[in-house]
Amino acid sequence: MKDIFKANGEIRVKNGVLQLSDAPDIVTDGDGDKYIGYEEIGEAYSGNAKHLIDEGSALTAEYIAEVTKDGLFLDLGCGDGAVTVPCARLGVRVIAGDISNKMMEILKERAKRNGISLESVTLCRMNALDIPLRDESVDTVVANSVLHLISNPEKVLREIYRVLKPGGRFVCRDDAPDMDRPGAEGFAEENEEYMKTVGEIYEGYWAELGKRGVTAKRYSWRFDRDAACRAMFGSVETKRIERGVPYFNRLVDSFLPRFAGKGFSDQVDVPADLHREVCDRVVGEVREKYGEKFDAVGYHGIEPDMIITSYVK
């Protein structure tokens, strides 16, 4: 395994994670490439679900295992292990890379709580803008929720292409466009209340921060990944995976813990003390407005089908 790394001399290891990059966890100013890492977001990123294995991630792992076979899978921006951990359960050989050591600690805890061995996983601190792997060294790559966090996503795609073997796949997961599934019509009024409540909190928060000169940090949220990949890769394959599972997410269990923990990427430059002051006040005002109903507000939905797209080198 060591021979696939681009490293000079001995590789430093910290808490079981190979330290393959000295780049900072986050860069949001200057003239060069900028990116948002989740070192500070950490525990808040997945809210109360940070140790669970959700159905979508499990289905994605099954597809990765199917196409990777006995090859090597790079989970680029692996974060808290949403994809890495179910892949490990299936015995896939994984290079799990992220700029945040903190997120990989959560990954290890997720595996532990689900009784899953990480024997087939190599954890690496790495920078997606300069992947520390040799050319044509991996069979599949996933970069889930990464490209929109970087000011130069095309550079990351070129790196992904470089490390993929000929015939290798860059695998992307999306929700099918028909997200308004039959069966959820009866919850329209409740869901409208959920969206209204979230909107009041979010808009009130950023309106107040705007008065203090603090704005949301956003990079490539509108980047056309599909167009860029089609211009770079040799062919494209798609697979639709049916789901249709009903779900209910209470605001106080999903959105609110992540928001209050400064767990959204656009919050990264908000000073901690200012975030706490404004968040507490805005959430308190909305909670007072809704009264006892606040804790019951939630969103009913039907999980959309998944579209797995493989861009093949």
Description:
The chain has a nine-stranded mixed sheet with strand order 1-2-5-4-3-6-7-11-8. The chain has eight helices and eleven strands. It folds into two domains: 2-179 and 220-245 and 304-312, Vaccinia Virus protein VP39 (Rossmann fold), CATH 3.40.50.150; 185-217 and 247-300, no CATH class. Helix 5 packs antiparallel against helix 8. Helices cover 32% and strands 20% of the residues. The model has no long low-confidence stretch (mean pLDDT 93). Helix 4 (153-163) links the parallel strand 6 (138-142) and strand 7 (164-175). It is of the alpha/beta class. The relative contact order is 0.16. The protein is globular. It starts with 12 loop residues before the first strand and ends with a strand. It has helices spanning 55-68, 84-89, 101-113, 153-163, 188-211, 225-232, 255-260, 272-290; strands at residues 13-14, 17-19, 72-76, 93-98, 121-125, 138-142, 164-175, 235-241, 246-250, 298-302, 306-312.
Average pLDDT level: 93
Order of helices and strands: EEHEHEHEEHEHHEEHHEE
Please list the strands of the largest sheet in the order they lie side by side. 1-2-5-4-3-6-7-11-8
**What's the end-to-end separation, in Å?**
22 Å
How many β-strands, per DSSP? 11
Radius of gyration based on Cα positions? 20 Å
- Kindly report the CATH topology of the largest domain: Rossmann fold
How much strand? 15-25%
Count of DSSP H/I helices: 8
Poorly predicted residue ranges: none
CATH-level-2 architecture of the largest domain: 3-Layer(aba) Sandwich
